[in-house]
Amino acid sequence: MTGLEIRALSVDLGARRALQGIDLALEPGRLTALIGPNGAGKTTLLRAIAGLAKPSAGEITLNGASVARMRASERARAIAYLPQGGGVAWPLPVESVVALGRLPHGERPDHLPAQGRAAVEAALLSVGLEGFESRPATALSGGERARMLLARALATQAPVLLADEPVAALDPRHQLIVLDGLRAQARSGATVVAILHDLNLAARFADRIVLLDQGKLEASGLPEAVVTEARLASSFGIRARVTREEGGLLVVAQGPLSDA
Ligand SMILES: Nc1ncnc2c1ncn2[C@@H]1O[C@H](COP(=O)(O)OP(=O)(O)OP(=O)(O)O)[C@@H](O)[C@H]1O
User: Fold this and answer.
1) Which domains occur in the chain, in start order?
2) Would you say the CB of residue 18 lies under 6 angstroms from ligand 1?
3) Which of 27, 37, 49, 162 is 20 to 30 A from 190, comparing alpha carbons?
4) Would you tell me the crossing angle of helices 114-126 and 172-187 to the nearest 10 degrees?
């Protein structure tokens, strides 16, 4: 089996079971959107795939090899992970921060070989940060910083890219640019998983949608099969209209359900 396979995965965080019995196959070439209400376990699932949260049960494999048993250096080349709301503490130039994404390949950010430089340039371009190369990373707006950190993850050119809310801080134009970039990364053969709270963007850009609810896999499949009015009511506790429009589904949230 190529791609990521998650079998009977459970994760405990302290006394809390954050994920329970997740079975999921994530195929290369696809952008998968991970959706679900706050606290559903989305970040925990990405962290478990990245090897940062230890499974209490079950297994995650990449192309048949256990992620837990990979050497850290091997895992860093195979799986790029963009955490939620990351920051930078030093006024490094944007280009140098993005070049840190080449470290898993043993490439020093200040002495990148041609391949590394090309990866950094492509990453900056795909998040719309060309022209920002020499700006200090600490002198960016929140959305620019979020795009820089995504570029760092993209620069690794890992076969798996995990992004935790990559468009949450972005204006509409840059949301579209970044999601186009993630989809392009998938089209080039990567397995891309992004946590998205905007259901319209998820339904429009993702090839597959995975819905988590209270640590369990509630649904997984094509956007129109997963994003339904019934599921928006049962999992998100909202009354919503879902209609099919040119270019994808249109989700209009109408109000919270009082008994959810
Ligand atoms: N360090 C921790 N110790 C104990 N429980 C935790 C810890 N971190 C998260 N949790 C709990 O685990 C559950 C899953 O959290 P997780 O961050 O994976 O949710 P999420 O779906 O990503 O949520 P959000 O949409 O709010 O980012 C939540 O109930 C959360 O309160």
Assistant:
1) 4-256 (3.40.50.300)
2) yes
3) 37
4) 140
Reported as half-sphere exposure (CB side, CA atoms, 13 A), residue 215 has a value of 13
What is the structure's pLDDT at 226?
97
CB-CB contact of 190 with 28 (8 Å)? yes
* Cα–ligand 1 centroid distance for 220 (angstroms): 20
- Tell me the whole-structure pTM to 2 decimals: 0.94
Q: For 65, phi and psi rounded to 5 degrees? A: -100, 135
The CB of 13 under 6 Å from ligand 1? The reply is yes
**Look-up of token digits 């699932």:** 45
- CA angle, corner 11, sides to 6 and 13, nearest 5? 155
Q: Which two tokens stand for residue 159?
A: 């076969």
* Model pLDDT for residues 112-140, shown as the tens digit of each residue: 999 999 999 999 998 899 999 999 999 99
